[in-house]
Write a structure and sequence with these properties.
The complex is a heterodimer of chains A (about 260) and B (about 425). Chain A is an alpha/beta fold. Chain A is about 35% helix and about 25% strand. In chain A, helix 5 packs across helix 6. Classes of the chains: A alpha/beta (about 260), B mainly alpha (about 425).
Chain lengths: ~260, ~425
């Protein structure tokens, strides 16, 4: 298993480059014309109100939703070429936790990508998975059925699965959502460990109070990109008001105006 | 000894059971149980068109027609779901009724043709396993073997697809292709099952063994294997019953057998079975009732100068929490058997052992109350109910940690003494 950090660094290319990205579900635009560059080796929060397209941004970068326009580059190449450098932690609610499987099994899925088609995970792969469970502090729960894990433990399982991917860039959809204080601290130190080893983490984050404490950079999103950059220069009241304040964005205002015009009288 | 024909039926029915069970497990876990039903119904017009085009009664062209129709039906369902706002269950309903309606029209037309009523196509509706010939078994074995091989090769891919589709896609697996393949494998089950159980009952060979198997195991591979085993056993059982009992059709016999396994699994499977959860619930209820009785006796003694040697009358005890006579007398019996109380018609009192248990229950309750008020800053009058629930589930180690955290307190938020474990000085 080759360490993606050992492979030649494309020194100039940012970790993620998003250009002119527009995504719509049906006729509803969710992301509008997003241009974005994310630096390598940072913890980056994606912040914005509900329905701002935070998860969609992640999914569009990962090629899970089809954009209408725009392109994405990961370390200077298309996502398809860089797939093995990228790890993903979906929202915890996105799966059925009553699925018949245990924690170790779920974490082992993290190596499936490296295995490619047809090959089965070996004992060595399962040991890697166990090590990842150890890193998130729940190796003792390896054989437990996943429905009998607490919310925080389930989140740790998802993180361990992403660790098993041994990626250089991680996308995490609300890793801190609905976890207890202990788990939150554990996850935070895990993310900091990833950063220390030169990895990049892009995480959707809901708790505005902890953004500045936990992250280096922030992406403020509300269908359009509001601001993007280091916490010190970007995460200020003005930008937050532009992201959250006045529920009507220009886009919805325009729609409203259009509808008002069509209304008789 | 079974006749040659009966051996054929036995072989065919078990084969169908195993393959239907394994693929049904995927359908069940992907929450697509009904897709098999729709695909079974789409087979009917395929069979009819196969007959009309070739005029042949041999299964090969008819099954080929069924397969083509099934593939069309499944692509239609997947396509409608993907490209429109129609939900999956609606798409399944639409495909089922449109194809099946068309099939019935064709079948009626065929039966009006000269010699059409001898076509025997109606056997595909309800199945007629007795007509299985060795060449049919050969077709079933080839198709079924191919399906099993696919699952064996793509086990890991199908597993991650079933658990977490988007994650599978992010790993680079072609999830769209895998989904289509899995649906086509269900079409294979339909084709295998047409002659044996027929269009209407095929869904049972897919879903029933899978639902039963899920009750017994928490492993993905375990569910697949057990579902296949239950399917296979039900298939052979149904075939044997219909061979030995006159006028029992094979298909329904198979379905009844697997349904019996399902009912038993829903009731008796450890952990998930209804009976087991009921017993577990009752056990907890009874323990809580016993512990409450001890606690009430303890508190009565506390109010009477920490003297637990007096007999407390039943009306006094029942008044404590409005217990009914029946529950109270059962609880009293159980506490007595454990040597926790002495009781007579006049009332009850704690024994030495009972006093120790009661003390630890009250200790758990009061420490937890204190913890809630001090650490979570809940008002005093809100904590009693919470503590009532928690005192029955906290274990000793946790209680001692709370005690330590709070600095070994003497009294609870209401000013009552927190008893220490026996042996320790107060």
């Amino acid at each position: 298993m080759s360490d993606p950090l050992e492979t030649q660094r494309s020194a100039s290319a940012p970790a993620v480059e998003v250009h002119d990205l527009t995504v719509a579900y049906g006729t509803q635009p969710v992301l509008w014309d997003v241009d974005l560059e994310l630096p390598e080796g940072k913890l980056i929060a994606v912040v914005g109100p509900n329905g701002a397209g935070k998860s969609t941004l992640l999914k569009a970068i990962l090629g899970l939703v089809e954009p209408i326009t725009g392109w994405v580059k990961v370390f200077g190449e298309s996502y398809e070429k860089r797939r093995s450098w990228v790890g993903y932690v979906p929202q915890r609610e996105s799966v059925d936790w009553d699925f018949p499987t245990n924690a170790l099994d779920v974490v082992t899925m993290g190596v499936y990508g490296q295995l490619g088609w047809f090959r089965r995970p070996s004992r060595a792969h399962r040991e890697t998975a166990l090590e990842c469970l150890e890193k998130v502090g729940i190796a003792d729960l390896a054989k437990r059925q996943i429905s009998r894990l607490s919310g925080g433990q389930q989140q740790r399982v998802f993180l361990a699965r992403a660790l098993a991917q041994n990626a250089r860039l991680y996308f995490m959809d609300e890793p801190f959502a609905g976890v207890d204080a202990t788990t939150e601290r554990a996850i935070l130190s895990l993310l900091q460990g990833l950063r220390e080893s030169g990895r990049t983490v892009v995480a959707v984050h809901h708790d505005l109070q902890t953004v500045a404490e936990y992250f280096d950079d922030v992406v403020l999103l509300n269908a359009r990109l509001v601001a993007n950059g280091p916490i010190e220069t970007t995460f200020n009241t003005e930008n937050l008001q532009r992201t959250y304040g006045g529920k009507l964005t220009v886009l919805t205002q325009a729609t409203e105006a259009l509808l008002a015009q069509r209304r008789p009288g | 000894m079974l006749s040659f024909a009966a051996q054929n039926v036995l072989l065919g029915a078990s084969l169908l059971g195993v393959i239907g069970g394994i693929l049904g497990a995927f359908a069940l876990l992907r929450r697509q149980s009904l897709i098999g039903d729709a695909l079974a119904h789409t087979a009917l017009p395929g069979v009819c068109l196969g007959y009309l085009l070739t005029g042949s009664k041999t299964p090969a062209p008819l099954l080929l027609g069924a397969m083509v129709a099934g593939v069309l039906g499944s692509l239609f369902i997947l396509g409608v779901v993907r490209s429109s706002r129609v939900s999956e269950d609606s798409a399944i309903g639409i495909v089922l009724s449109v194809f099946f309606g068309f099939g019935i029209v064709l079948l009626t037309h065929i039966q009006r043709l000269p010699f059409g009523n001898q076509s025997g196509l109606d056997k595909f509706l309800f199945g007629q396993a007795a007509t299985l010939l060795p060449r049919d078994i050969a077709i079933m074995a080839v198709l079924g073997g191919g399906a099993l091989l696919c699952i064996f090769l793509l086990y890991k891919e199908f597993k991650v697809l079933t658990f977490d589709r988007e994650y599978a896609a992010s790993l680079g697996f072609h999830v769209r292709g895998l989904e289509i393949l899995l649906t086509l494998l269900i079409v294979v089950v339909v084709v295998i099952g047409l002659q044996t159980v027929g269009v209407v009952l095929i869904i049972a060979t897919l879903i029933t063994p899978a639902a039963a198997a899920r009750q017994w195991t928490d492993r993905f591979g375990g569910v697949l294997l057990l579902s296949g085993a239950i399917g296979g056993a039900s298939g052979s059982f149904g075939a044997l019953v219909s061979a030995s009992v006159d006028r029992v059709p094979t298909g329904p016999a198979i379905v009844l057998a697997s349904s019996a396994v399902l009912v038993a699994s829903l009731l008796f499977a450890p952990g998930r079975g209804l009976l087991w959860t009921q017993i577990a619930h009752r056990r907890v209820t009874r323990r809580i009732q016993r512990e409450n009785l001890l606690k009430d006796l303890y508190r009565w003694g506390e109010r009477h100068g920490n003297d637990w040697s007096q007999l407390v009358s039943w009306p006094d005890l029942m008044g404590e929490r409005g217990a009914t006579g029946g529950a109270m007398s059962r609880t009293r019996q159980q506490a007595k058997q454990r040597g926790w109380i002495d009781s007579s018609a006049g009332g009850a009192r704690l024994t030495g052992a009972g006093l120790r248990v009661a003390r630890s229950i009250v200790r758990r309750h009061r420490l937890w109350e204190l913890y809630l008020t001090q650490r979570l800053e809940l008002p005093d009058d809100h904590v009693h109910r919470d503590a009532e629930d928690m005192e029955h589930v906290l274990d000793d180690a946790l209680v001692e940690r709370i005690d330590q955290l709070l600095g070994h307190p003497e009294t609870d938020p209401h000013g009552q003494m927190i008893p220490r474990p026996a042996g320790e000085a107060a």
